[in-house]
Amino acid sequence: MGILRNKWIVSIDDYRRASRKHLPRMISDYLEGGALDEITMRANEEHFDALMLRQRSMVDVTGMDTSTTVLGRSLAMPLMVAPMGMLTIFHPGSDPAVARAAVRAGSIFIHSAWAGCSLEEVAKVAPNNLWAQVAFWKDPEETASYIKRARAVGVDTLVVAGDVGSSSKRERDLHHGLSMPPRPPVADYFNAATRPGWLWRWLTGRKMTYGNYAVNGRPLRMDEMNSWMASNKNPAATWDDFAKLRSEWSGNLVIKGIMDAEDAARAVDEGADGIFISNHGGRQFDAQPATIDVLPSIVEAVGGRAEIYLDGGVRRGHDIVKAVALGARAVLAGRPFAYALATGGEPAVDRAFGILREELKGAMGFVGKASVAELDKTVFANQSHSPVLNGVLL
């Protein structure tokens, strides 16, 4: 197992494959799956792959500088951790393990509104490297209470979940009976028994709860989540709610789930400091574009008035180069760190950060750029032929 975790793992895809050996099939399908036919989920990676980079020769790239800043905060590289719910089902280290690794990597961890542990617990291990995702619940007191808690632990950046007003079915999960509470078929019980390490951690480790929310003073149990969500999900949230939050929150405000240039411009008009391009990793709405497809048009619409971030399909260091060259301030990754967490816990998450940083440095060297600040559209191949990404001239 040690060899599997260390010697032979040299890429994020290695962690993806290794995680399948550590997780029951129903859990690995939950991690890897997307909405409906998973068209958008596949496009996120495939459309990154379709962009070719321009190799340059005889360029001095000594003193390679991968650092950048995000909302005035220094990062060791333009990579942050996207918000992910229910990390506990992959490994009991959960959010704190990934957050500690993010701190060591000089990155930022975004705590999900659907996390399995509380914001306060994560703030203890990553007080200066933590953003908090917030949802507009039907009961405004739930939203207000969470924002108050974020302020109390020193969070200076809120990330509004703008892509959860509607939802779609994930058919892999339905086949496994992954409802709240789960009702898996008998075959999945037998499959889980073939993963004794995961089963032991599940039985003896951190209890699986929705730790951000409480009933009667205790964390919300998984079997209570359906009724809680039915009562609190708010499909009526609008830009008015965002504007109200902007008037009440003095810190940075980022909106996640922007996939349209018109929405991006509206977000900036309403006071957003950051535009987070995301299609939820293809887990919410299928048959929409990949995030890299919409990046150029959103950059143009925002016109430098706010920072732009992107997730979805980031698996290699050269993906970071491509997104930054097209105008993203930084990228975010979720599944890559979940694959690592499931495979080897916190040390594996450290290694995943290291893999991506070394790949980033290699890609920057090949395109002849010694710093992140130098990355621009000249890194793309076929410049003389005016390369086009989904109809947008690069």
Q: Would you kindly provide a written description of the structure presented here, covering whatever features stand out?
A:
The radius of gyration is 20 Å and the shape is globular. The chain has helices spanning 2-5, 12-22, 25-32, 39-49, 94-104, 119-125, 140-152, 171-175, 186-193, 196-204, 225-232, 239-248, 261-269, 291-302, 317-325, 335-366, and strands at 68-70, 73-75, 79-81, 109-111, 130-134, 157-161, 209-215, 218-221, 252-258, 274-277, 307-310, 330-333, 388-389, 392-393. The chain has 16 helices and 14 strands. The protein has a single domain (2-380), classed as Alpha-Beta Barrel (TIM Barrel), CATH 3.20.20.70. β5, α7 and β6 form a beta-alpha-beta unit. Helix content is 42%, strand content 14%. With 394 residues, it is of the alpha/beta class.
What characteristics describe this protein?
disordered N terminus, eight-stranded parallel sheet, TIM Barrel, 14% strand, two-stranded antiparallel ribbon, 394 residues, 14 strands, alpha/beta
